[in-house]
Amino acid sequence: MKFGIDRLLEDASLRAPLAGKRVALVAHPASVTRGLTHSLDALAALSDIRITAAFGPQHGMRGEKQDNMVESADYTDPRHGVPVFSLYGDVRRPTGQMMSTFDVVLVDLQDLGCRIYTFITTLLYMLEAAAEHGKEVWVLDRPNPAGRPIEGLTLRAGWESFVGAGPMPMRHGLTLGELGFWFIEHFKLNVPYRVIEMEGYKPDAAPGFGWPLGERTWVNPSPNAPNLWMARAYAGTVMLEGATLSEGRGTTRPLEIFGAPDIDGRLVIEEMRKLAPDWLKGCVLRECFFEPTFHKHVKQLCSGVQIHTEDPAHYDHDAFKPWRVQALAFKAIRKLYPSYDLWRDFPYEYAFGKLPIDVINGSPLLREWVDDSNATPADLDALTLPDEQSWAAERAKHLLY
Hints:
This protein is α/β, with parallel strands linked by helices. The chain is built from twelve helices and ten strands. The chain has helices at residues 4-10, 12-15, 39-44, 96-99, 119-133, 176-186, 228-237, 265-275, 322-336, 356-361, 365-371, 377-395; strands at residues 22-27, 50-56, 75-76, 83-86, 104-108, 136-140, 193-196, 257-260, 284-290, 302-308. The chain has a seven-stranded mixed beta sheet with strand order 3-4-2-1-5-6-7, with helices on both faces. A hairpin with a 6-residue loop joins strand 3 and strand 4. Helix 5 crosses helix 6 (176-186), helix 7 packs across helix 9 (322-336) and helix 9 (322-336) packs parallel to helix 11. The longest helix is centred in the C-terminal third of the chain and has 19 residues, at 377-395. The protein is globular and about 65 Å long. The two termini are 13 Å apart. 50% of the residues are buried.
């Protein structure tokens, strides 16, 4: 199969509309060709494209920023001499001065298929700025490694943030190119928009179910996204960023594991199985121990759980529900340790006055369900299933593959 960047590089007819125009690129470390050349280098080498600027999202164009809320500065690319503007530094939205450096912007970002992954918000902000300044946006499409499944509560009005671009569920099941069409329709944007589609993309096909496993090299789109298995679990484990539990930052398996020094992972798994065994289908949970070298619970032995999705004998793509798995883990901990200090309180992604777990979920509904001792898994399903069904209908018209 071919990604959007590879098709653009190979087919001069696709590039023809860019002739004589100033072109910018939004990219990060995973913005690479089939041969692992960075997209900025590959595009700059073409004689018929004039690159005049580049933009780096959260974690930087080079992907060097390990943690959230670590900002990047603007700089001049030493190889190509073009300005590289940070969209996670002094600003999140491109300024008028930044927009004046190009006519068409190419967006080549590897997404993880999760509402909270900020690259999709960066796309929205670029689309809005392009509509305001009369610029054109092209997305060079890439796979959604989490595939087509939909899961999670829809973000409620008033809960928009840099990790909540709009009213979609946590696991949206679209590619970045498809999401662009939804953004334009939902926010009623008047902007010239084009998607360079992938060729041969089969999001429902085994063994990758969204990612061409065995065909393309995985390059971390952000520092703690080291593999496909993390991408599969991420729509659930990202909620740990709003909890006092470690999500495995400071280990070699971030966002596939969770734990803390003062819980018992074995008991947590047992309680999860008692509460909602149907929610645990499609994966295997294993008790584990780890000692983070940085971040939460640094240098402390944590008892916890690893979510395994890598073995085809264990993984069922359609059955696996990462958001419910992690929600159930919170519920089990609340049952086992009723007074456990579970929720962090700080301005997560610059959302002041709101608990991070609520910002992540786009409402307090998940947290309230966890903390309500009388609330059952069926109660959370009653809230969530209508959201998931509504999104399935809403996104259908935007599917390209």
